[in-house]
Amino acid sequence: QVQLVESGGGLVQAGGSLRLSCAASGRTFSSYAMGWFRQAPGKEREFVAGITWRQGSTYYADPVKGRFTISRDNAKNTMYLQMNSLKPEDTADYYCTAGNTWPLRDYAMDYWGKGTLVTVSS
User: Fold this and answer.
1) What is the DSSP string of the chain?
2) Average pLDDT across the chain, whole number
3) Cβ neighbours of 10 (radius 10 Å)
4) What is the structure's pLDDT at 113?
5) What span, in angstroms and rounded, lies between the C-alpha atoms of 64 and 70?
6) What is the pLDDT of residues 77-121, one digit of tens each?
7) 50 vs 102: CA distance, rounded Å
């Protein structure tokens, strides 16, 4: 059974940093792309960042470019999202996802985690 489990969310002041983790299990993801989406209260889910598991190619949504960094550790089957210079508008539930598609499209993803809440206070 495939599982994606996020961790690392929490409350942080504006300008602070958090690192999210996504531990993957249940299959090999070498041919997959993985990434992060987020959903703020009352808003649609939106793409944040993506990475190809094998090559490590990355891309980001414009609002987070230069502030967020996505990475993965193949040996640990874990993906990370380092978030710096956080803003109140980054407040959302952050979801880890995996799929055999590139670029990432939320309707085409195969697996989702349950999410981790990030709250940025002003």
Assistant:
1) --EEEEE--EEEETT--EEEEEEEESS--TT-EEEEEEE-TTS--EEEEEEETTT--EEE-GGGTTTEEEEEETTTTEEEEEE-S--GGG-EEEEEEEES-SS--GGG-SEE---EEEEEE-
2) 95
3) 13
4) 97
5) 11
6) 999 999 999 999 999 999 999 999 989 999 999 999 999 999 999
7) 9
